[in-house]
Amino acid sequence: MKIIDTHTHLNEERLYPIRDEIYKKCLENNVVKIINNGDTFDSWKVIDSLAREFPSFCYSAIGIFPTEGSGNLQEDINRLEEAIKSTASLVAIGEIGLDYSRDNSPETKAKQKQLFNAQIEVARKYNLPIIIHSRDAEADTFNTIIDSKFEGNVTLHCYSGSFQMGLRYLRHKKNVYFGIGGVLTFKNAQRLVEVATKVPSDHFVLETDSPFLTPHPFRGQLNDSSKIIYVLNKLAELLDRDVEELAEEIYQRSLRIYNIHE
């Protein structure tokens, strides 16, 4: 059995110092590849170094988080394009998107949409998939993606929308995928359970978002990619599927989405 964690942050300050230990735990739990996602400008260099330190295990996604833009859009995009040219094992632009959780003023929304659209254009230019962060911005995220007519693969990281919205995405764009993580194991995860059971499962990928969103029964502890097995087991239970068969399907799908060659 092979598993890919399609969204993690091994570069995060709590995980990076214990990266060797996490790497060993991952292999013991059949997690053979992970994709580290950029969330700050500084994270890009660490993500690049991880891909060089752990080739064929660590892959890179870099992007400008919705709340991280410097305020100078052109400078930010130039900086991203320069990093794209030098980042090892780059497989996606991410995580990018919209986040209105702290500030939903019209000015903030407009700036975030500008940054989001500009990065979609970068992904189009370099023929890379995009990994989407969306918080308290469901409708605007949907409209931005669909209106952009972006033809590449789209992963909705830590999908928190309704199953109805999930089906709406698929009516408009066939290559949209839904990141299923530790939230699925929570007792109050009814919304995501509905997604898991009512949205076509051939559009799911697995993720941890570690060090965050630690799955049950480890809630409150530090999360890492080795714990993704608990997400897989819960998904297999909900779908009444054989765990190894489901794992193989998701593994092969993830390789295709991110154009990863073994």
What distance separates the N and C termini? 14 Å
Q: How many strands, what sense, and barrel or not for the largest sheet?
A: 8 strands, parallel
* Low-confidence segments: none
Strand fraction band? 15-25%
Strand pairing plus helix content: what structural class?
Answer: alpha/beta
Tally of helical runs: 9
> In CATH terms, what is the architecture?
Alpha-Beta Barrel
What is the CATH class name? Alpha Beta
- How many structural domains does the protein architecture include? 1
The percent range for helix content is 40-55%
Number of strands: 8
Averaging pLDDT over every residue, what do you get?
97
**Strand order in the largest sheet:** 1-2-3-4-5-6-7-8
Structure description:
This protein has 262 residues and is an alpha/beta fold. It has one domain: Metal-dependent hydrolases (TIM Barrel, Alpha-Beta Barrel), CATH 3.20.20. The chain has nine helices and eight strands. It has helices spanning 19-28, 43-53, 73-86, 106-126, 138-148, 163-172, 190-198, 228-239, 243-257, and strands at 3-8, 31-37, 58-62, 90-99, 130-135, 154-156, 176-180, 204-206. The protein has an eight-stranded parallel beta sheet. Strand 5 (130-135), helix 5 (138-148) and strand 6 form a beta-alpha-beta unit. Helix 4 (106-126) packs parallel to helix 5. The mean pLDDT is 97.
